[in-house]
Amino acid sequence: MTFTITVGGATITQITEVARWPFPPRDMFPAVTAEDVARTAEEFGPGSVDAATGDLVLAIHAYLVRLGGTTVVVDAGNGNHKERPNLLPHHRFDTDFLDRFALTGTAVEDVDIVVSTHLHPDHCGWNTRLDGDRWRPTFTEATYVFGRAELENTQALAASAPAEGAVADLARTYDDSVRPVLESSRWEVADDGHLLAEHGDTRLMLRAAPGHTGGHVVVEIQSPDGGAVLSGDVVHHPVQLLNPELTQAGDADPALARRTRDALLERCAREGLLMLPSHFPADHAFTVDRDGDAFRLSPADGARP
């Protein structure tokens, strides 16, 4: 599952780590109803819901952005061999992600910047890979960019040394996917409005989008010819387009997450921004339109396999 699309002077390629990542609906969205799930299958097709089990189907995507002479990886996926005993959907992957990455024609050594929308396991895992018994940065020549608030929050959580539950696995994520970068790679912290890259009249920027985590960001591509947003976990699944009140079980601040989601979807609809989510089981970008109190998605033109 992959595609490439051009926005202004930027070329964006989706690289799928996991194409089918199912979850029981209420594990993902505690308030979801059977009607929500049925409407989602009808509106977005059977690929969004497993017809046999009723599970919501997600995916894990990374994005490779080329702008001028700069190559950027956004959300480097879950990674292999990571110990996540309390977050089993993230536990001990063994995928061919790096082979799929190589099919883009870009070597890991060619990447200039790596940025994560947030530091949950499935968005920063391939920051590192296992080399013998040590975790080493995957993108050896890159500068890793972390949202300031996200890095500070994650460091504070890891320093508290949680022993049990999901927070223990978030601490493990810091130890195996972030700390090795801080110790042996170039890195920097960034705030809202940080310019990642610029070429001609196209700009690649970080924008604050808190709620799912306190320091969540999105990556926005701006150009006079149109724009796009790599939206991370602001929206997890198409069911949230039909029922905007649904919050995801992992949202740190559900009320803020909803305000951020509504604001981003409204901007996409009003300004014609394309949306490229991290977890939709699809091989295309989306246009967003207002549909009463909800929103409607359509496949964007211009994507090529």
In short:
This protein is α/β, with parallel strands linked by helices and 305 residues long. Helices cover 26% and strands 31% of the residues.
Give a verbal description of the structure.
The protein is an alpha/beta fold. The chain has a single domain (2-299), classed as 4-Layer Sandwich (Metallo-beta-lactamase, Chain A). It contains 8 helices and 16 strands. It has helices at residues 25-28, 34-44, 97-102, 121-124, 148-159, 165-184, 239-242, 254-271, and strands spanning 2-7, 10-23, 56-67, 70-74, 113-115, 128-131, 134-137, 143-147, 186-190, 195-199, 202-208, 217-222, 228-230, 274-276, 286-291, 294-299. The chain has a 7-stranded mixed sheet with strand order 1-2-3-4-5-8-9. It has a 5-stranded mixed sheet with strand order 10-11-12-13-14, with no helix packed on it. Strand 3 and strand 4 form a beta hairpin. Helix 5 (148-159) crosses helix 6.
| H/E series | EEHHEEHEHEEEHHEEEEEHHEEE
Content of β-strand:
25-35%
> Strand count, sense and closure of the main sheet?
7 strands, mixed
Count of helical stretches: 8
CATH superfamily: Ribonuclease Z/Hydroxyacylglutathione hydrolase-like
Residue-averaged pLDDT: 96
Total separate domains? 1
In whole angstroms, the N-to-C terminal distance is 8 Å
Tell how many strands the DSSP assignment holds.
16
**Backbone structural class:** alpha/beta
Question: Layout of SSEs?
Answer:
Elements: E1 2-7, E2 10-23, H1 25-28, H2 34-44, E3 56-67, E4 70-74, H3 97-102, E5 113-115, H4 121-124, E6 128-131, E7 134-137, E8 143-147, H5 148-159, H6 165-184, E9 186-190, E10 195-199, E11 202-208, E12 217-222, E13 228-230, H7 239-242, H8 254-271, E14 274-276, E15 286-291, E16 294-299
Parallel strand pairs: 4-5, 5-8, 8-9, 13-14
Antiparallel strand pairs: 1-2, 2-3, 3-4, 6-7, 10-11, 11-12, 12-13, 15-16
Helix pairs in contact: 5-6
